[in-house]
Hints:
- By secondary structure, this protein is an alpha+beta fold.
- It has twelve helices and 23 strands.
- It folds into four domains: 2-86; 101-288, no CATH class; 289-410, no CATH class; 412-478, no CATH class.
- It has helices at 2-26, 29-55, 64-83, 89-99, 110-113, 116-123, 198-206, 209-212, 214-219, 246-253, 290-307, 423-426, and strands at residues 100-104, 133-142, 148-158, 164-172, 178-183, 225-235, 241-243, 260-269, 279-288, 312-313, 320-323, 331-340, 343-351, 359-362, 372-378, 384-389, 396-401, 409-410, 437-438, 442-444, 447-453, 462-466, 474-476.
- It has a nine-stranded mixed sheet with strand order 1-5-4-3-2-6-8-9-7, sandwiched between helices.
- The chain is extended and about 95 Å long.
- Keywords: Membrane, Transmembrane, Transmembrane helix.
- The chain crosses the membrane at residues 32-53, 65-86.
- InterPro entries: Sialidase_sf.
Amino acid sequence: MKKSVDWLILLLYAFVLYQVYQICFKGGLRSRLPLLLICLGILIVFLLVKLILRGLGNWPSFSRIRLITFLAITLLFGGLITYTGIPGQLSWKIMQLLNEKQVEFVHRNLYQDGVYGLLKDIRKKMNVPDTLYVLDDFSVQFKKNGTITKVDGFLYGRDTSGKVQTFLLSYDEAQSKKLIIQMNGKANTTFDEAASFAPLLQMFNQVDIRATISPLTVTNDADVYGLLYTGKRQFTTAEGLESIDEKGREELAKLNNGGAVEGFAVSLFIPQREDILPLRLIMNPKYITPDTIEQSQEKQIINQSQQSETWTTDSQDGSVYYFVPEQKSIGYRLKVADAAAGSRYYVLEKTEDSGTHWQTIHENPFAGVAGVAEGIEFFTSDFGFIGVTGASQTHSQIFMTKDGGKTFTEVLLPFNQVKEMPEKVKTYGLKLEDFQYLSMPFYQEGKLVIHVSTSAGETEYLSFYSQDEGVTWTFENK
């Protein structure tokens, strides 16, 4: 009984030191402190009882094996605690020992074992969640006969207790015959079903990879071939794309009408040969109409714009969005109405329900000027500015509204006030007529300011300000 208590004391001692180490390494003092104090209190009680009884001659001293165990625990966790704050070889080795496993990679033939063989070898050495997700991508390189030569991937999942487990996989046949797994890494684990790893395993059950990749292996005698899986993907063309079932082929045929298909896909390719089209297998593809894609893109750009402090440009069609900072349900957009020779014509639209419905409030906000929208901003729901620039971005015009976009007037700056060019500008030999690019207005120290430069992005400029909301402007000679 007394020996059992001694071992219990050692166990509590080890657990207390382990909790201290976890606090030093990962933090979380507030969450770990209650358990640490409880265990520490129990440990102190046991030690006091032991010391009292030993003083009365009723308890023997530690045996040699328990003394060695005590010293080993002290040295191990003392070292760990010490080196949590000292980056270097020893701390790295300790972390490697705790968080890295090396597994004998036995099932190394992709044709025979698939990807499941890799998981089978890993599970011989450690517990791996049944449901896994891929972060970014999972890639395999293999020889013509199916022998795997490289593996790279980051998988994650939850164990039976709900704790997140991460596995960074790395294998290089030229370096080692063992598969290296680094665990407990930090990652953006979203658990999005679009990143599920299971479809890749299912594909190997339904598809003969050797036969599928034969068009590549027959026409190209490469040293190595590649497999890439990133989860669910979208494709706008059926070129190089093959469904693993008949129903999916019917979905791919709909791409002739535009739109896209979405499904879990794996790419088979030749590394370093971008000139050779990859073969892509897609599982359960679903057709997405062009209208649905447009609505999805619009919703995405609206959400992005509502979170931004400035205007947002839709890279798809060039429309520009802006939502009033203090009233995020109210927004404006310069929507492209027509385009020709690199220039665009815009209409101004407004929403009062966070982008669900838009109403055209001005058919010609730039007064017939064609170009590319420089920006749009409203300081209130009524007071705002829009800007348009040419393709060269050496000239721009700014227009102001005070009635929520119903009418606009061009901002005309008093260049006649510029009697002498700033000293910095003089050194470049620039003339007043070189300054034709107006920045979008902004507030600075309570004044509305416009910088005028020779082109977009230039750091040398002339500065004009207004103290009456754009009614009059004054040149500021700095």
